[in-house]
Amino acid sequence: MPPVFVIARLTVQESSRRRLLLALLILTLVVVGFSAWGFNKITTMTRGDGTPLPPDQVSLITSQLLIVITFMFSGVLALSAAVVAGPLISGEVESGLLLAMLARPVRRSEVVIGKWLGLAALVAVYAAGAGSLELGAVDWATGYLPPHPV
Amino acid sequence: MAELAEKTEAASAKGKVAGTPAVKTVELTKRFGHTVALAGLSMTVPRGEVFGFLGPNGAGKTTAVKLLLGLLKPTSGEGWLLGRPVGDLRTRSHIGYLPELFRYQGWLSAAEVLALHCELAPLPRSSWKDEISSALETVGLTDRAGDKVSTFSKGMQQRLGLGAALVGEPELVFLDEPTSALDPVGRHDVREIIRGLASRGTAVFLNSHLLSEVEQVCDRVAVVDHGRVIASGTMDELLGGTTVRVRAAGLTQADKNRLSSFGRMDDEGDQMTFASLDADRVPELVASIVSMGGRVYEVAPRHQTLEDRFLQLLEDEETD
Fold it and tell me: What pTM did the predictor assign?
């Protein structure tokens, strides 16, 4: 395997071994669960005269709220990816972790690109997974699915 | 200095293995801002020899190793490893390196760290299993192969680092203070490993300030101070002299000063150590002390140790 992919694989392996992914999964489930509960509330809301909201209105409210939620997801994701990735390489340089590896036939650019690839793969998989989970949860709670989610 | 010229000659004349030297540098210099870490390092390490690179703290030893491995870029000067310019990627697959500041992926097992180094070396996948088990065997970690590195003590991590430096039968191994975290047993093991490497023709570049250790394993040494080589040569060339320890009472300071014709002297009251004195001159020394009214209790000539020589060299360097 070319060194770039070895580094990328190592990055993915690190996050899974260090239980970063597990923590992320649990937190995501909590957030999705909460939002599903909230969306479910919309369907049981009543108007002033005691009648439930008509389905069109539920869909409208849900669709607007869902846009806000997905926006929040992407914002948090971008921010946390930057926070996680920023100190990654400098930390490894400082601790000496990279010294032994850089003495192998590995270019520095390969280390940087490999790290980026690994993190990009992680973020992409997470975004796809968390996104579909959220859409599924909203669909279950309100029966609303965006017409063209992707 | 005279030693410098001597060393260059010795290196070219005694390169017993045909072909290019393992390490060659010409005026390698590294400055960090205004700090000169390495001021024109010129040296040659023949293939298949154990080379000790000595110097006090901050002399530029680690900087030199990092420059040679391409981890730092030299400010000026040139270097070659195994006949190729420093920084050449292909050369690095024939080189092993144990950093001074060693740390390995804590979330991997010992065997996985070694596999990573096999993969980056790169070695054919079919050979990994043998390489890993022989490296673990060599550094004595076989029974911890499957354990996470984060559960290892500092000394065990250093052993692992040594193992990682050994995968793939490198032609040249850089060991930067390889015993800094090891107990006496570990130090002994490392000496055995270094001798083993030398016997199969691997050149070892040993960075150390543990002189007794260097003395035991090295064929050739270079002493650096303030970023330049102040002496180098084979162990025999460097440790030619005799050190004489004299225990005598009844000498005044003026008397002692007059003994300076016998070379550099460490004065510790009744104990005086003449760092480099020809054995033939011992009777003359004793006669002088007696003629000054000193009473001699003990005269003990011995072979100069690397420590004697090292201190002498650094002191000469200061006075120059």
Answer: 0.80
ipTM (interface pTM): 0.82
Nearest residue on chain A to B67, judged by CA atoms? A103
B101:A3 CB<8 A? no
Q: Which residues of A touch B104 (CB under 8 A)?
A: 97, 100
- The DSSP string of A21-46 is HHHHHHHHHHHHHHHHHHHHHHHH-B
- Chain B neighbors of A3, CB-CB under 8 A: 120
Query: Which run of H or E residues covers position B207?
Result: strand B203-208
Is omega for the bond preceding B122 within 30 degrees of 0, making it cis?
A: yes
Task: Mark yes or no for CB contact B107/A17 under 8 Å.
Answer: yes
- Side-by-side strand order, sheet with B271-274: B265-268, B271-274, B242-249, B295-303
Other Cβ atoms closer than 10 A to A87: 10
Nearest to B101 among A10, A99, A106 (CB): A99
- DSSP-assigned letter for residue A55: H
Spatial strand order of the sheet with B35-45 comes to B35-45, B23-32, B76-81, B84-85
Gap between the Cα atoms of B95 and B202, Å rounded:
10
Asked if the model's pLDDT at residue B236 lies above 70, the reply is yes
Q: d(Cα B30, Cα B253) in Å, to the nearest integer?
A: 44
* CA separation, residue A12 to residues B187, B191, B196 (Å): 36, 38, 37
User: B61-102 pLDDT, tens per residue?
Assistant: 889 999 999 889 999 999 999 999 998 888 999 999 999 989
Instruction: Give the residue among B14, B31, B11 at the shortest CA–CA distance from B23.
Output: B11
β-sheet bridge partners, residue B25: B43, B79
User: What residues pair up with B31 in beta bridges, in sequence order?
Assistant: B36
